[in-house]
Design goal:
The protein is an alpha+beta fold and 610 residues long. The chain is built from 23 helices and 22 strands. It has a 7-stranded mixed β-sheet with strand order 10-22-21-20-11-18-19, sandwiched between helices. The longest helix has 36 residues, at 545-580.
Length: 610
Amino acid sequence: MKKVAYYILPSFAFLGLAIGFVFHLSNSNGLDNKIWMITLIIGTLPLIYKILKDIFCGHFGIDLIAIVAIVASFFMGQYLAGNIILLMLSGGEALEVYALKRARRELSNLISNAPSFAHIKKDGNLIDVNVDQVKVGDIIFIKTGEIIAADGIVVLGSSQVDESALTGESLPAEKEIGSSVFSGSINKSNILEVEVIRKPSESKYEQIISLIKKAEENRAPVVRLADKYSIWFTVITFSLATLAWFLAKDSVRLLAVLVVATPCPLILATPIAMISGISRSAKRGIIVKNGGALEVLAETNAFIFDKTGTLTLGQPEIVDVISFGKDKNEVLRISASLDQLSLHVLARSLQSYALKNNIVLSIPTNFKEDFGEGVSGDLDNQTFFFGKLKFLEMKGINISKEVLDKHLTFQSEGKIAVYCGDKNNLLGIIIFADVVRPETKNLFTNLKEKGIEKIVMLTGDKKAVAEIIAKDLGIDDIHAEALPENKVFEVQDHKKQFGKVAMIGDGINDAPALSTADVGIALGGHGGSASSDSGDIVIMVDDLNRVGEAYTIAKNTLKIAKQGIFFGIGVSIILMIIAAFGYISPIYGALIQEALDVLVILNALRVNFI
């Protein structure tokens, strides 16, 4: 059935019921029954087709009982009861479709940030062409801020390139002549000329997208929650219906048993609760793409976190200032004053840090920048330098063995040290690092309190850097230097060990793993669109605590959905026993089911308030 039919059918059933009641109240000599009979015939045929199709495909659903009750009511002339069941069954399925309307879009629409054009150098001129026209051997220009259109080798220029979305490395990579660059990464500071070594369709970026597609194709569908209880409930229903027949040999009594067994509360409980859970999540900046994601998240046993941009802020921040002979604030003033004219990616963090510390900056004169190395300029009639260690050494500044040892330590810890000096002496060191999000420890504590068995860190960053972060957060299971394909294997391995697994990430390199996990949670506040669109759940605000909120909402949603299901099963069994002894007629049974539906709906809506 087409999805639109799910909405047409309940509307048609409601209209048939309403028209029939109008004729019934006007004493139309049986025209009401004719209307209800026609409505029942037309409305039931597509449902029977769907049920038979599901059975032939090996899927046994709980709505089979409702179809049997509808068909039985037709042959017994109980058209009003049949129409009521038809309305609730078709309405329940319409609600399920509505709950799933946030299903993920086509992959081609998910990766809107893929490079679409390139500047090609041809006959001394720059020509803009579609990325599909780029060939191996072409020289392409990448301007500041642009996405690199194809994998290649730098033939002219030097720059900092943000590869975090592809590799998980938190800090920009320095690129110079001979360096490799990858499609999908972002040029941050200076124009590059790159010789293309692979067609864009064969680039690293496209390989990642291919992994996403493969993972999507292999993703198993989520079984509707109520169907998990369908077999034994169906057995009980038909057993009691058979008992009713043997007790009185009365087909109406048998129908009454089937009517009160009609599992509308079971069918309604899950979609209403899921819709409420999706709505509650959206209010908290958490976009849930389908109800099945909430169900799976609630049953998750292990959480796997990417590091860069997920557990950490994903951008370098100043973590320490070391001074030699001058006040630290003076070292900051000199460094930030020089760097405010720089295109270097660290310049913004340095200026921001200086402003937060109420340091007044000056405009340097005779400013000069050696791209990727350092800057120099005059402040207060004195020349200063700020840059890499070798940059200051080239300017004739003496570097002690103690500082050289410190430099090696910084490198091993994954930190960036930038040095400040005048013409004669080293004045200080500004140390940058990708820092852990302040809310991370609180999140881990909450997840463990809620029963999560395992928390894992999975990153493309260096092992030494990952171990420092893991120690700080108390994570004992880390997997470092993992490429996108390695992340997929790690997720698959943890699924075997722990059952259902959630993957949380923010970069393009996380997208295949997000799609492979039972439920993928993407931090979309600043992440790449490929990761956001591969996730079943997207956190739209830059707050890792929302992962814990999503888990809590999922747990509450599943709890309330199950309450509705078990309430429906329990009450239905009691009513079936009463009906088997002849104390409930089919029409009253249908009306009682309507009342149960209202109770289930009200209970499911509680998800919005707890």
